[in-house]
Amino acid sequence: MPTAQTRRCRPSRSFANLGVLLLAAFAAPLLAFEQHTAHGGPIKGIALSADGKWLVSTSFDYSAVLWSLPALTERRRLDGHEAAVNTAAFSPDGRLLATAGDDARIRIWRLDELLDDRREPRATVLDGHSAKIVDLAFSRDGRTLASSSWDHRVGLWRMEDLSLQRFLTGHEGPVNMSRFSDDGRSLYSAGADGHIRLWTVADGRQVRSVVNHGWGVTTIAIDEPHDLLVYGATDGAMRGRALRGQRATVDYAVEGKPVLALAMDVSSGHFAFGSSDGRVVIIDGSSGETAHDFRATMGPVWALALLPHADALVFGGLDDFLTRIPLAGETIVGSGAARERRFHPLGALGNGERQFARKCSVCHSLDDNDRRRAGPNLHGVFGRKAGAVNGYPYSQALAGAPLVWSEETIDALFRDGPEVITPGSKMPLQKITNGGDRRDLIDFLKHATQ
After folding, report:
1. 96-134 confidence digits (pLDDT tens)
2. Same domain, yes or no, for 51 and 186?
3. In terms of domains, do 399 and 322 share one?
């Protein structure tokens, strides 16, 4: 069953001068927001269906969750990816849902199967990329899916037979996002090389570099009726410029933190940026004016969506819940609350518990009833053979490892690293170099996992 935690705060007021506005930026939070929990790890991506009835979130916990709108009620959990799920996209007709992630695979789901509680949904897997996939986009007619990958390529996939059409190569670094032109004949791709490149879909030819920003371009959106190309970059730039030269280039923000997310609402013409320091900037695309500019959270905004008519914003990041903020009414200013996270607690903790919170709790739970994390639960871990938690999809390397967890093996795991102790497993590469920190962590685990 879904868990929804709702928190409401006082609405903000409009401010008449810059001095008051700056004070507001550091004041107590003035935002009204709701928190909706269904994941066991940070939120990596959010996608909204064209009809506004469905939303999907993707997570570091290897899953995607389908939500029904407007209530934001958890409808179905989608499992099957073998690593963090970074991105999702609905087909324009709403029949298909595509997800992709760090396992370099695309999974295609049928929405009717996801809504049938009598059936276990099955996804068709599309293989071909050799590094993580960070963005998916359908053409407006739904015939083609574009996948942007850190293998420096964009994949074009035919939805008619779920086959690879071709790869687009030319970026000199990871490709972060791609978007089709309205007629589906052209594709714009944004890369870490600082370029936004234009391609012809039919033959995969690179036409030209539309933008050479210098810094990596992380996000793009296209609004052809208004001759608008919007993008964000690692230098904090939030910029709008002409697709065909009919409008002046506008910097909505400069010299900020890296831009990580961008969403556009076609019904209102608004678009929203999210940055690595939790800032959200919402622009009225028709006028170019800033509608909202506020600190939404303490930490990165990795994913966001504007609900129809820009009535509300849904965003996600390091927390394992979605946050919805209503946007109707007065302009929002102020800052998000410094909310405690399970892996970055604000209160006073013993060193062992702090090590667990910051190094382990993103992936692992101490509760044997928690099945929503990227890694297996640690309840009863001491004396347990590696790969022995029932129901957890272990890698073959760990499932067959002749390893029993003990004080000595756990110490070695964090001293030498997973690449040495559990080579080929899913565990992220990390070490705790300080021997005292390792001892404190083990002492905490001995008590907490009983």
Report:
1. 999 999 999 999 999 999 999 998 999 999 999 999 999
2. yes
3. no
